[in-house]
Amino acid sequence: MFGITDDKMEKIYQQMLQINVFLSRKRSKSEIYFFLKPMLLEAQIAAFAITKSHFVKDALISYIRDLQSIKPFVSGKDLIELGLIPSVEFGKILKNCFKKQIEGDFTNKQEAIDYVKNKYLN
């Protein structure tokens, strides 16, 4: 149908169901971001089209309009410049900073860098 394989249709359908279940209750912005990021756009659109839940609709609108295009303020290069040595902790630090950024705890890169300095360098 519409040049979409049966496998892709099944994936869209399964993701649409997952989206509706996950977003059927209030979630934080970062939870919405990290859940929806790997989901197919078609599944997001299908979930929006079929749901009656305002939680689902609001979360999808927020993700598509505001969250999906957010780029992290802090990178691994920034952590190295601060004197941190690359390790498995890098991923945790970066994800933690990005979560805080998504939630609005930082409005710019300097605030995020200051957070890293205070939390991880003192």
From TrEMBL:
<protein>
    <recommendedName>
        <fullName>CCA-adding enzyme C-terminal domain-containing protein</fullName>
    </recommendedName>
</protein>
<keyword id="KW-0548">Nucleotidyltransferase</keyword>
<dbReference type="InterPro" id="IPR052390">
    <property type="entry name" value="tRNA_nt/polyA_polymerase"/>
</dbReference>
<keyword id="KW-0460">Magnesium</keyword>
<keyword id="KW-0547">Nucleotide-binding</keyword>
<dbReference type="GO" id="GO:0003723">
    <property type="term" value="F:RNA binding"/>
</dbReference>
<dbReference type="GO" id="GO:0016779">
    <property type="term" value="F:nucleotidyltransferase activity"/>
</dbReference>
<comment type="similarity">
    <text>Belongs to the tRNA nucleotidyltransferase/poly(A) polymerase family.</text>
</comment>
<dbReference type="GO" id="GO:0008033">
    <property type="term" value="P:tRNA processing"/>
</dbReference>
<keyword id="KW-0819">tRNA processing</keyword>
<dbReference type="GO" id="GO:0046872">
    <property type="term" value="F:metal ion binding"/>
</dbReference>
<keyword id="KW-0479">Metal-binding</keyword>
<keyword id="KW-0694">RNA-binding</keyword>
<keyword id="KW-0808">Transferase</keyword>
<dbReference type="GO" id="GO:0000166">
    <property type="term" value="F:nucleotide binding"/>
</dbReference>
